Amino acid sequence: MEFNPRRSRELMASINIIPLVDVVLVLLIIFMVTAPMMYRGIDVNLPQSSTNTIKSEERIVMTVTKNRDVYLDKEKISIDRLEYTLSVKKKQNPNITLYLRGDSEALYGVVVKVMDAARKAGIDKLGMVTEPVFTNKEG
Fold first, then answer.
1. Residues 60 and 128 both lie in one domain
2. Which residues pair with 16 in a beta bridge?
């Protein structure tokens, strides 16, 4: 049995990164699965659009359902109280943006009333939330 003292003093020069890659891939899969569930408000069928321009700033999400119900964030609100409530929110934050999520089967008149209440409350920034259109761009 030969003992080589020089060989035992060598340090391991490589780092095993395979466990790190495994952890990163698992985290990536978890984020990909949970990302669509980050904002779940009132379920509505959104109309489709080919652009997606929602900016991350202070915002209010208004939802109009096909049953003529109006929700401010997740709280049901009557159209009569809407203008006052929006004006209070506008006073709290002058740079607030209203994002309107209207069901594709919602009545046009209800959506217009919501938009009108937002304008009367002084909210200048109004965004319409839509789902992107997926087209097949082959050939």
1. yes
2. none
Q: Are strands 131-132 and 75-77 parallel, antiparallel or unpaired?
A: unpaired
Q: What beta strand segments (E) does 32-110 contain? A: 48-49, 59-64, 70-72, 75-77, 97-102
Tokens of 41: 């408000």
Domain that holds residue 109: 48-132
pLDDT tens column, 2-30: 566 555 566 667 788 898 999 999 999 99
pLDDT one-digit tens code per residue, 24-72: 999 999 988 887 766 556 677 777 766 655 444 478 888 898 888 899 8
* Whole-number Å distance between alpha carbons of 116 and 43: 23
Of 46-55, 71-80, 125-134, the range with the lowest mean pLDDT is: 46-55
* Structural domain contains residue 56: yes
Number of structural domains the chain divides into: 2
User: 76: which 2 tokens?
Assistant: 């049901």
User: Are 55 and 32 contained in the same domain?
Assistant: no
- Looking at the fold, whether 120 and 87 belong to one and the same domain comes out as yes
Residue with tokens 């003529």: 68
